[in-house]
Amino acid sequence: MRPLMVLGCTSDAGKSLLVTALCRWFARNGVSVAPFKAQNMSNNARVVAGVGDEPGGEIGVAQWLQAHAARVEPAVRMNPVLLKPEADTRSQVVVRGTVDRALSALGWQERHDALWTPMAESFDALAADFDLVVIEGAGSPAEINLRDQVNNRMVAHADAAALLVSDIDRGGSFAHLFGTWSLVPESTRDRLAGFVLNRFRGDASLLEPGPSRLTEMTGMANAGVVPMLHHGLPREEGAAEVSTAPADAPLVVLPRFPFGSNLDEFHLLSTAARTEWVTSPAALESLDAGRDRVVLPGSKHVLADLAWLRSTGLADAVVSAAQRGVRGIGICGGAMMLGESIDDPHGIEGARPGRADGLGLVLTRTTMGDRKRTVLTELVAFGGSWSGYEIRYGELAEQQRFIQRGGVTATTVHGLFEHPGVIEAVLGVPAEPVLEPTFELLADAVEDHLDTALLRRLVEAAS
């Protein structure tokens, strides 16, 4: 089958959502399908197991979700390059699941050639093992100031049929679609087979003659109009998550670190508890010690986020809440902050070695190692055994993974709050799984709102 690529007129046009939906729809129709994104940028990452001779490592959470939608095991080749911002002008470069510190030190323009090989080889490996690969683009393919490997070079390498998506809720969709079609290289324009208007509110018949005129001007078919979907996928930016819990549910307060990471793991929690992301101490002052909680999430730059916690007054507020009996939980970077000290002798998190005192709420010390731990794991805690993952440089004293002192808990294991049993054990409220029902809802949306005959023609066409 011919690969299918989803390009967007802008960032956040709905590429990830549409690829997820297509993966489940094709899988539901008996197609062996896998997702692929050559390069992602996110501090929300997942650890995946090795496949055959391919080692495991970390990939963007979007491709992890898309693999589950496709009913296949996620693998590093589904997202061979992951950029994880560490500062406003610096990113950690993860290649084939592993941090490449040499590439991370290079300037943006110097990385291209070194990154293309893992991108192309990873796509080729997927294409050899699956009937269909659904490729997600990045940002816009019409950024004519950039050397674009992720969109334009990849669509040509894969010789994929492409759909172009626009977020109509933003306004200006016909201009976005026509302008993008006009500016992309000819090799991409020739492969743009259809367009999708995403996040539409209202009567789709009122859009005419706009879609028909756009088809006349560009040759792109109208592949469909997707309504504003209220789905259960985590948001790409985890701290933008809006809680859907009942008004009488317990309150969980989470500091919004500047370099917070793996924040999508609190998505299920936000359906059972009122989650509130905070940047000031006021929300902690009125917490109910009997039912509310404070959670310190993961961090991509623990020392910088700890300094921010102190500068905002949140550090003192967390300590004060714990002293009043409010239970607190720190996860990975958050767990390190709860300890007595953090040492970074190798300068892993900055240009030079660093050290800081922690909040002193649990008795442990953290040392940043020079190698990153990325492993799937099991943790016995909260009344059961739970699967999770570790993704960190920091090592707690004596390689501790779970510490409790009074009402404060620290753990290096991510993913615990994705288990309904953990949420019920910690908060005393039930949580219902959301991912599988959401995958099915998205596949239904493909069936109901996209031109499925066109989709079939595109992937069955000879390249």
Could you characterize what this model shows?
The protein is of the alpha/beta class. The chain has 2 domains: 4-232 and 439-460, P-loop containing nucleotide triphosphate hydrolases (Rossmann fold, 3-Layer(aba) Sandwich), CATH 3.40.50; 238-433, Rossmann fold (3-Layer(aba) Sandwich). The protein has helices at 15-28, 61-69, 101-105, 112-129, 149-158, 173-183, 186-189, 210-218, 269-272, 302-311, 314-323, 333-338, 420-427, 435-449, 452-460, and strands spanning 4-8, 33-36, 39-41, 45-48, 57-60, 81-87, 90-95, 98-99, 132-136, 161-167, 192-200, 221-227, 251-255, 260-261, 274-278, 293-296, 298-299, 327-331, 341-344, 354-357, 365-381, 384-396, 402-405, 408-411. A 6-stranded parallel beta sheet has the order 2-9-1-10-11-12, sandwiched between helices. Helix 8 links the parallel strand 11 and strand 12.
Task: Give a quick set of tags describing it.
alpha/beta, Rossmann fold, 2 domains, six-stranded parallel beta sheet, 24 strands
